[in-house]
Predict the 3D structure of the following.
Amino acid sequence: MFATENREASLLEPLGSALGAVVRSLDASRPLPASKILALKQGLLDHHILIFKEQDLSEDQFRDFARYFGSVFAPPADVPVLASKAGGATPDIVLVANVEGGYTGNGELSAHSDHHWTPTPSAGSLLYALEIPDKGGDTSFYNMHLAYETLDDATKRRISNLQLITYNPFLVPEGGDRPKYRFEDKPLISPVFPHPLVRTHPDSAKRILFLDAATEVEVVGLPKQEGAELVAQLREHLAQPRFRYTHHWTVGDIVYWDNQAVLHARTSFEGRRVMKRISLSGSRPF
């Protein structure tokens, strides 16, 4: 799309797995030439995640780097997300850490895409590692384009025009029930936004299975049991190791993932884990 094949060859080193490439010899704290920015944009479309090693950035430098790829994500005031404050405001940089002021603790996180339940889910996220534990806290990424492409033709036809509601996980009471499918017709306490179960990537035109592993969902227009069985079938499919790359963090890593085409998950850990995340604005899925 960006006509950068020659530049990419010298800048990116593919991981040789289901997705991902390491960016070589780039200092994200410095201004970048147009040729490298375009190569990185194309690289993300091709590889779904980019890994920048040995970075040392201030918050302002981290924000400036992220803005090469888009504006910072801001959710609607009535649709809470991670780090939402009173009135719906969210910080540009979210502290993803098990220290004071941080979010997500130290437990396991199932495979998901950020902000799936909002009207315009974020296009991507950049996660910057400042402290890592001795063991655990790895992040796995899942290639949802490959997950879609490897479905059988009958399943592709069945799901091609279906819409999926992903219910807001931040509106579940602490310690409350967290079902994976909505069987009961509950009163809505926040707007819901059906999105295509098979999404078209707005830049690459790739077809993507737009479903996560465990958040409460509902397929629009299908009987409850039929919808639940379909979702369970698709979730079993997307969990296969052949779609996954697991990143073992080192301090100074920045991982930039395409939230429109990738799920991410985290293993549990002990000890301090301090990271900073910037999410980028997206568009209405189609």
In short: The chain has two domains: 5-107+122-133+247-280, 144-238. The mean pLDDT is 95. Residues 5-107+122-133+247-280 form a domain with the Double-stranded beta-helix fold (CATH 3.60.130.10).
